[in-house]
Amino acid sequence: MSALDLSIVIPLFNEDESLPELTDWISLVMDREGYTYEIVFVNDGSTDNSWQVIQELRTKNENVKAISFRRNQGKSAGLNQGFKAASGQVVITMDADLQDSPEEIPELRRMILEDGYDLVSGWKQKRYDPITKTLPTKLFNAATRRISKIKLNDFNCGLKAYRLEVVHNIEVYGEMHRYIPFLAKNKGFSKIGEKVVQHQARKYGTTKFGLDRFINGFLDLATLAVMGKFGRRPMHFFGAAGTLMFTLSIALLAYLGSYKLWALSAGVEARLITENPLFYILLAATIMGVQLFGVGFIAELLLRESTKKHDYTINDKIGLD
To answer: In degrees rounded to 5, what are phi and psi of residue 162?
Structure first.
């Protein structure tokens, strides 16, 4: 069993104003509950004084640890490195902008340890965001629920709790931080719960996300849906699609050829096969079918040979050596 009760992983980008207040708030809750803990800040290439502030916090609080990227890599990269560094029995993730309340941590921890959940996601039922953000979020959550078959109301909430085993068995890359419950489910961690949590109005700075995140989010969801089902057997997806397309195309081409031969033998006037637009459609479909089959075969070879992981250039660390 881990020596620490909690690891609190906080990815951040240009949040120097909120970090001291957030650290004090977390420490207050941890000391009140008597938990042993670590706060793992992941500085995502901030261009303000965030890293300097973290170093100062480290001198005052030995529970503060941190990783700093040389350049901005994105929230998923930050969470992935934070998960690797975490050693607490329960891992909590939260945003650095003070919109997530540390007061929620004890109950989230209890749900993991006592109720037996692998992962508990926060649900900001009452949000302090404009409709331009809340409406697309509702559509996004509805689509994710339908595809993932996970009954959560707020997939993108940064406040989540995990059993340590979960974070050490998933890899968060690209912009997949929105779909961590889906990633966990695909790894066999199916007991996923939800807790209504407070949503604080942003106190400092501005949001780092634009509307493009929703477009990227839906594209990532489609990728994850396919990878979750066929990621370890790509031939079943590409090969099946290619074989079906090739077989139907060849069958219809054979029909066109047979009909032409019959027409010639019966003295029935029939135009040239090459004058029929369907011939070119079927010819293209045949070629695409062969290509899809080849893609599936190559993907299978790459899957068997690949050992490469997603690596990120880390500029500095404190308290993690």
So the answer is: -135, 145
